[in-house]
Every structure is written in C-alpha cells, then in structure tokens.
Write a structure and sequence with these properties.
The structure holds 2 protein chains of 2 kinds.
Chain A: H1 7-22, H2 28-52, E1 58-68, E2 71-79, H3 81-104, H4 111-130, H5 134-152, H6 159-190, H7 195-202, H8 210-226, H9 235-238, H10 244-253, H11 258-265, H12 267-271, H13 274-295, H14 301-321, H15 325-352, H16 370-383, H17 390-405, H18 407-432, H19 440-445, H20 451-466, H21 481-486, H22 503-529, H23 544-550, H24 555-604, H25 609-629
Antiparallel strand pairs in A: 1-2
Helix pairs in contact in A: 1-2, 1-4, 2-3, 2-4, 3-4, 3-10, 3-15, 3-20, 4-5, 5-6, 5-10, 6-8, 8-11, 8-13, 10-15, 11-15, 13-14, 13-18, 14-15, 14-17, 14-18, 15-16, 15-17, 15-20, 16-18, 16-20, 17-18, 18-22
Chain B: H1 2-20, H2 26-43, E1 49-51, E2 56-58, H3 60-79, H4 81-86, H5 90-109, H6 113-131, H7 138-169, H8 174-183, H9 189-206, H10 215-222, H11 225-250, H12 255-278, H13 283-304, H14 309-338, H15 349-352, H16 354-368, H17 374-388, H18 392-416, H19 429-447, H20 450-453
Antiparallel strand pairs in B: 1-2
Helix pairs in contact in B: 1-2, 1-5, 2-3, 3-5, 3-11, 3-14, 3-19, 5-6, 5-11, 6-7, 6-11, 7-9, 7-10, 9-11, 9-12, 10-11, 10-13, 11-13, 11-14, 12-13, 12-18, 13-14, 13-17, 13-18, 14-16, 14-17, 14-19, 16-18, 16-19, 17-19
The chains are: A mainly alpha, B mainly alpha.
Amino acid sequence: MIQLAWLIPVFPLVGFLITSLGGKKLPKSISGTLASTMVLASFIVSLITFIQFNGQPVTIDLFDWISSGSLSIPFSFMIDQLSLIMLLIITGVGFLIHVYSIGYMHGDEGFSRFFSYLNLFIFFMLLLVMGSNYIVMFTGWEGVGLCSYLLIGFWFKNPEYNKAANKAFIMNRIGDLGFLLGIILIYITFGTTSFNIIFPSAGAFPNNQPVIIAITMLLFIGAMGKSAQIPLYTWLPDAMAGPTPVSALIHAATMVTAGIYMVIRSNVLYSLAPATLSVITVIGAATAIFSAAIAITQTDIKKVLAYSTVSQLGYMFVALGVGAYSTALFHVTTHAFFKALLFLAAGSVIHAMSGEQDIRKMGALKKKLPITYFVFLIGTLAIIGCPPLAGFFSKDEILAKVYVQNKAIFGVLVITTLMTSIYMLRLFFLTFFGSFRGTHDQEHHLHESPKSMTIPLVILAVLSAIGGFMGLPEVFSEHHSFNSFLEPLLTFPSSFIHEEMSHSLEWSLMIASTIVLVIIFFITRKAYTSSKGVPALHENDLSYLAKASYNKFYIDELYNFIIVRPLHIISEVFYKIVDSRMIDGLVNSVNKTVVASSRTLRMVQTGNVGFYIFAMVFGIIAILLFNLVL
Amino acid sequence: MNTLLVLAGIGVFGLFSEIFRFKKALLPVVFLGLAAALVTTVCDWNTNVSYFNNMMKVDNFSLAFSAVMICITMLWFIISPGFFTDETSKSDHFTLILFALTGGVLMSSFNNMVMLFLGIEILSISMYILAGSNKKSLASNEAAFKYFLMGSFATGFLLFGIALIYGATGSFDIDVIATRLSEGNLNSSVMLFAGILLTMIAMAFKVSAAPFHFWAPDVYQGAPTVITAFMSTVVKTAAVAAFFRLFIHTFTSMTEVWHTALMIISAATILVGNITAVYQTNVKRMLAYSSIAHAGYMLMAIVSMNSAAPSALLFYVIAYSVSSIASFTILLMVSNSTGNDSIESFYGLGKKNPFLAIMTLISMLSLAGIPPTAGFFAKYYIFIAAMENHMMPLVLIAVLGSLIGVYYYFRVIIAMFRDGNEKEIDFSGRYKLVMIIAGILALALGVAPGIVTGLL
C-alpha cells in the first residue's frame, strides 16, 4: 500500500488538468468540488500511508528522470517520518482551505482558474516534500514559487497586485539561486543528489568543514527566500495581495515552511556545520523580533498576520539553529493550524466587511460574527501561547531548547513572545470589541459567513486547541510522541550542549509566561477596547518610533535606494549603449547574413535532375580524392 | 523475425483484398496486424537471435528501431485514410506502405550486405511508386520520376561499394567483414577504401545528407503530403538505423577512411538544411529542409562512435518522428481547408483553434529543440555523445544550426498568432487523436527523458 503513495500528488495534478483545461466550460459547482475532492483523496491516501508506515523509510522509484553521463536522477519519492507529517499538513489543511475557498471565492469570475492554481500548488508542494533527491525537491520548490506568483497576482487587473507578485517572485529567485548553487555543490561533493546516499556518506566529514559550511549556507539562502527571513522577507507582507485563502494556505501554513522542511531534511549536513547553525539562530531571532516590532503598529488585518508569520518563521529557524529540528517541525505543525485558522477567520471578517481590511474601521464585530469571533479567539490564544492550546506547547519547547544553548537569544525570544501577545491581542480587541467604526453601508451588510467557510474554521479551531497534545513536553508525560516519532531521522550537532532543561525550571518558565500573558491580556483589553486605543488614521499623528514601525522601518525604501535604483541606472546604460547599439546591430547583421546565404543557397536547388546528379558526382569525386589521394 | 513475417503477411493480404474485394476490412486488419507486429517485436526484447545463416540478427538495437517504425506507421495510418479514398487502387497503396515498412525493419536488423541491399530496395521501390501516387498531379509525377532516377543512381553506388568490399574481404557477412578488417593486412586496400566510401555515399543519399540531398526538397514537396510524412519519419528512421548499424558495427576499425568525410557531411547537412529552410515560404518545403537538417544531427550520432551513441540516436529518432508526424498532421489539416501549403494559410490559427495551435506550438518547439519538449533532450544527448568523442567544432556547428532553426520554426508559430484567414479548419477526430498522442509524447519525453535513454 505504501508503494501506492505516488498517487498522492497525482490526484491534485489531475484536478489541475481538468479545472484548467475545462476552463470556463466547467460549472462553478463542479470545479470547486472537484478540486477539493482531489485534495481530500490525497489526504486519505496520506492517512492510510501514515497508518501503515512501520518506521522504515520507503523509497518509491517511478522512473529514471534524467540520465546523462555520470549524472543520474531518478524520479522517486521518499516516504518517511518527516515527509509523512508534511503530507498530512499539506493535504489536511489544504483540503480545509479548498472547501473554505468554495464559499470565499463564490462570485469571482476566475473561480475555476483559482482552483486550478490551488490544485497545481498542492501538486508541487507534495513533490517538494516527497522527492527523494534534491532535484525533485527543487522542482517542487520552483513550482510552488510559480503558483505563489500566479495566486498573489490572481486579480491581475490591479497593477499593485502585479507588483506584489513580481516582488515575491524576484525575492524568491534570489533565494532559489542560492539553493541551486547549493545543489550543484552537493553534486560536486557527493556525486549524487539522492538523500539516501548523501546523508550516510556525510558522516565522513569533520565538523565545520568549509565545503559543508558552504553547502549549508547556500541551502539556507534558499530557505531565507522561501521562508521570508531577513534580508529576503519583504515579499511576504506584500503577498497579502492574493485572495485570503491563498494567504492562509501558501503564505502561512505550507509553502513558507518549505525552508524549514528543507533544513530539517538536510539536518545531517547542518549538524556538521555548527557555524551555519549559529548564523541561522541569529538571523531567525533577528527576524522574529524585528517583524514583531513591525506588526505592533500595522493596521491592515492581513498585514499584522503576515508579519506575525514572518516572526513565527523566525522562531522556527531559531529552533533549527539550536539543533532542535523536531521542535521546529512541531511548531510548523501547530503554526499551520492556528495561522491558517487566523487567516481564514480574517478572511471571514473581510468577507463580512465587504472587502475592508483596515482594523481602524472595524470594531464590535463580536455580536455580528459569533462563530468567526470564537474561532479567532482560539487562534489568538493559540498563537500567543495560552495553555493548553497548541501554540503553548510548541513555543514553550522552543524556548526551553534555546535556553540551554544560548541565553542571549533566549532573552530576545522572550521579548518577542511578549510582543506577539501584544500585537495579536491588539488586533483581536480592535476587531471584535469597542464600537463599530466602519461606514453605515458596511454595518448594514455585516453577516456571518456561509457554512462552507465556517465549518473549516471550526475544524481548524479544534486542531489549534488540541494540536499541542501530540507533543506534550516530558514534564507532563513520559513520552514526547512527536519527537520520538521523528527521532530516527535526526542528528544532533556534536559540539552543542547535551542537556535538557531541568523540570523545575521548565515549570517556572511555564507558570511565569502564563502569568505575564494574563497581565498583558488585561492591559491590552483596557487599552484597545476604548476609542482612545484606536490607531490614528494619519501617520503624522503617530509618535516617532510608532511611525518608523508603521512604515516597516523603511526597509523597502532602503532596498529601493541601495539595490533597485542602481540596478535601474545600470540597466538604462546597458539598454542604451550595449543593447541598442552593439547587440542589436550584431543580431541584425547575423540575421541579414543568414537570410542572404539562404537566398543564395536556394538558387542551387534548380529542379534540374542533371544538375543534381552533377552536384552529387562532384561530391563523390571530392570525397574520393580527399581520402584516396591525400 | 516474426515481426517481418507479420508485416509481409498483411502486405500480401492487402494485395489479395484488391482481387477479392474486401477492401472495407482492410484498415482494421492492417491495424491489428501492426499491433501484432509490435507485440512480437516487444516479445523478442533481449533475445539476440540470428536467422537465415546469420543473414539477419535481431538484437535490441534493431528491435527498438523496428518498434519506433511500427508505432509511427500506426499513427500514420490514423491520419491517412483520406489519401486512400481519394485515389484509385487504394489497396495497392496499403500494400506498398506495408512493404516499405517491411523493408525498413529489414534495414534495421540486417547482418549481411545482401540483406541490407534487399531492405533498401524493398523500401525504395515502394516509395518511388508512392511518391507518384497522385497520378493527376504533375508535381507528384515529377517527384516520383526524380526520386527514381536519383535513387537508382545511388543504388548503383551502393552495389558497387558492396561488390568492392566483397572483393577485398571475400564476404557479405558483416561480422566476417568486421573481423577481417580488424585483423588488418588486407592486400587490396584501395579497393576496400573505395568500397567503404561508396557505401557511405549511397547511405548518405538515402538519409538525404548534403551534398546528396538535392532530391529531397523536390520529392518531399511534390509527393502527396501523407507520403511526405511517411518519408520523413519511417523512411528516415530506417535509413539512419541501417547507416548506423553498418558503420558502427562493421567499419569501426577503418575510421580513418570514413570518419572525417562523414563528419564534414554531417556539418554540411546541418548548415545547408537549416540555412536553406530560412528562405522557404512553403511550409511543406520548409519541413523538407528541416528534415535534411535533422539528418545531419542524426549523422552526428554515427560519428560519435561511443556507447552513448545508440541511445542518443534512438532518442533523437523518436523525438524527431513524433514531432514530425504532428507537424505533417497539422499541415495536412491546414492545407486541406485552405488549399495550399504556404505559411499564410497558418494565419489566424491561434484564434480559430487554440487547441490545434498549442499542439503545433509543441511540435515546432520540439523540432527546434527547446525545453520542455523531447527535441531538447534529443539534441542534448546527441551533443553529449559527440563531445565525449572530442568533436567540439562539429558540436559548435550543430548548435549554430539549431539557432538558425529557431528562425524558421518560430515563423510558423508567429504566423499562427497573426490575424487573417477566417476560414474554418476541417478538424476531424482522427487528426486530433494523432496530435494529442504526439503532443503528449513530445512533452513526456521532454520532461522525463529517462523513459527511453535507459533502453539501449
């Protein structure tokens, strides 16, 4: 049965082909249902595979993909603990978001197109996590990038959205180049790209070997792009231009975690390069606190969530950096639940508010949108780490692991956690409490979303609530089921401290964080339910620091100034001098030469058999003379 | 061996059907027969048996090429019923095609010079007649006559070459000849050299390599389009397979005689084919020049002479035949409804029939050798094989040729997306079927070339 796992990516591919080729001929009811069913089928097969999995990684060889000289790349899949967890997240959360989209995208003229992209995305994402070598993984990696681009620019009539799509694509390309170079270096070093040959043979390398550091750094550059880390994070907030289900699926739950997945997949290499791990820790921590600082003043409901995603991804990278690979994946899993939930709930709010995304114009939505309010509450509590919801366990575990390795980074993360609570509760209270600040029309139209949207929300809320129990810390139970499931795949950097946090310390950490959380809850409630707490509509009214944060610390402007503008100037020069004068001239003259010689050569074809035979005989004599006389 | 019997059998059945008037059953029987021939071919895989006192040897090389020819012939039969209903004495034509295929199979599995000669002649004589099968058309008659005249001229050289080689080695059996040649110390070396060169010239004529290609454009353009499709796919495959088998198997120890000459021929063919195609405004004639250029690439596999060459050649032949048959199918459709083969008849196709336009796009990209189509990997493997034999100048010329190729293949693509020509295209299901099969194959091989490269 496990051998049938190749079916998992086939279903969404079929869905994509039907919905895209069928195009406008397909009735809406069919394309949405079909796309969702295909993902459900993948989920079921993944689940069966998961149940039948016996702990031994299985490789499924489909066919020889490329073979040329010593290069041989099989198209094969790998089913192991890591890919199974990712499969369940992608197909499970993916299915819920598909169902949600049926309601959310209802009435959009690109309905079938939307579902075809969504199915294509699922297909590539599955390739990414199932591939048994870096090339198949890279194929999926590029594919999800393409789908992300297509979906961010889904409403392509808006030029701003197209710019956002381009930005995402270009930023990702920078990372992808690093990834590609990393793969090439892996091939040069190991002579193959297959995981099950590279990792066993990597053991022969000593710690911090330059080539391993180079490989891991290059791969990490790829991860930076895809998983939105400093300095390549600015695309993710802009990516919110896409429809909200896309933000939930691609820019929160699945695609952006591909970088984490890739590092965990290559953990054998990373454990050999503690230097790279330190870089990852620092970048992760910096990203976490920096984007949390931006999130605190944002006023667009999706932007807050987007910066929160960047910040949470930073957390995961810190976990990777301290060698806590399974903890990072645990946070990927819980984050997929609660962040998908938050985005979809935000989508439900936006849907109700007739497209309004500014929280300054919301407020008092609690009564009108009871289900959305309730699930948003669960999501918020989960992300800020309120026990016993999902985020509490995964976040606490990251903090515990970091504390053992690096106290300074621990401090940064604790501050970030406080900021997370502040901006999430701010968002929550501003949206659902206080007084309604929108227009009269909007108030009149307020309505709870249809069932196809609320049911996925409720399911995700349940998962966000109980999802943490699959990784109960050892303080509570003998057995950390999530970590021990993943254990066979993972290594630990030998130079790191081998020690667990003492139980008493862990207890006090948990209790302290809970108490702080309760305090923050009441402070923010007081601050943001009153009308004074609503952020000013004009940024000039903000304080100096808040203004900087509101403007995202002017990073986009900085990039514009130091990279984009010089590039424009250089390209202008190249266009005017090199391209127009030199290259065009060269190309045109080549073209003229070819056409002229074609005209001449054509004349030889006279149609006269006598001449043909003469030419043949001439050729024959030339060949004979050439060989026999010379 | 069984393949040969089955093919000859249905050929003879075709002849009888004319006499006993059960023509309607003919097409299904031919399909069944071809399917049976394909099955017997596949069943013989990895057997390596020789027949008739070592006159014929069925090995994986011959089986792979036979299978390709049979498959392409099946596709060809799907698009060609119109040809058989429009003309008189159609069952003769069925038979001739099947005999040509039989000759082709023989050419890919010969182990004796006599068998090679027989195969070539069975194939060629059928093709001479088929080229002139449109009796009312002056162009078709001219094509047949030119083809016959020049073909028999080349056959003379082949026979002469075989005789000289026999004189020098005392055998027709290519295994024996190969051993004699590798032992050396043959007293009549001039006779042998001349023999090898003359066979090479004759084979170069059959694959339409420069400067023996002059017949090809005239014949391809004059013959009915379906026959041109058959000539540029199955016939070319057979000729190239025979060329490869003869020179790689038999004359490897005599490379100093033929290698440089063939390399020059290959380069000249690529350049002449591609450059002349640029100026053509008639798509059928353009495809004829394109097929000359492709013959040049196929010759590169022969001059590479290494272990990568057979599978590179097989891949190339498949990629080329598949895209070629698709291009001729579209040409057939377009010319049926507009009445001519000019590039103008493709105007407006993209708007009228996007599906057809996409399939054309795929086959043109594949012929030009652009990923993700089969044509890209076809060229890639050929170039790799040539580079392993350190033939950088030839590879550079070949790349240059491909660049020129883009020029005229893209002209068809651009024409499709231009305005004009509102006339509807007659678009029957069987054309659609062939285009879909060919399109899928061209894409599948371009995405996963490993399916074929592992075979040989």
